[in-house]
């Protein structure tokens, strides 16, 4: 055991503006994302950072109540601390909330350990397989990009600026025929690009199959949750032959055998937020490899802190088969001093000790004030765009990404 002890834990809530109101089947992000920052301070003055969130509410009240279980503990003993906070019985009660609480805590612990030892997180957990991580273009319709031409122009600016080779379209917002037109127009504009389509389970099986058949000849990497339920995904896969990915029907290790035995999906879109941190993501990687399933990486939205953790996890995952998702391009600002840069569709893996990021305290305080002024929000589907020709807004509230 190390001689270092955890002295204090601080959870802070921030809200960062995003570029436009990003539309999805469940509603929209209303111009900002809420994040929860975690600082773990040791008795030797080493500070580790973690972050979770990207949705509309802070997890700080939950994390504050866990302090008594962590203070005085050895920050190097990450397995012991995970068992104290995220044991299987606890996970049963908290379901998907608990992994998102554990993720920033684990990130901060790994940040401390890496700083104490003078090595990066990726080398701490086994060593980099990749020096850079490919990222997909995450294209959302917004209030200003509701027509085919508008959305294609917006996507073109994003793809050319960052050099993306893989393009992900957030679908399920308008009627399927409109979204087929968008994908075809994007494919004409970027004939060498690979496409992934994610309606967040907003289509019924008939609609999903018709969309798939309408896109014959386009380079589709996968359909992500084209319909709802595991059996629905199996039926879509059987009917179309397309690769199917999910971040909804397989969110726990207990789900993996069922997915495998039913042959329901091909790609599990894990991420450290939902799969118990970086170590959990690596365990998922090994599990899928043993079954012949493929691994991707989902994004719930992140600042540079969580993005660093995601990149370190991706850099050490031997069977990561696809460009990772990130909402990072939509943040108006970040709270780290040296922000991440996407070039030729890739992000370089940090080599500095720990997570390899440095916090800008003035930015944290600025966006704490914004959170205090604006508070939490829920996804909502109250935007009325039914008057736009050809388009029909889906106001389904059955699922939130």
UniProtKB/TrEMBL annotation:
It is an enzyme of class 4 (lyase). Residues 148-243 form the Mandelate racemase/muconate lactonizing enzyme C-terminal domain. Pathway: Carbohydrate acid metabolism; D-glucarate degradation; 2,5-dioxopentanoate from D-glucarate: step 1/2. It catalyses: D-glucarate = 5-dehydro-4-deoxy-D-glucarate + H2O. Its EC number is 4.2.1.40. Gene3D superfamilies: Enolase-like C-terminal domain (3.20.20.120), Enolase-like, N-terminal domain (3.30.390.10). GO terms for molecular function: glucarate dehydratase activity. Pfam families: MR_MLE_C, MR_MLE_N. InterPro entries: DgoD-like, Enolase-like_C_sf, Enolase-like_N, Enolase_C-like, Mandelate_racemase_C, Mandelate_racemase_N_dom. This is glucarate dehydratase.
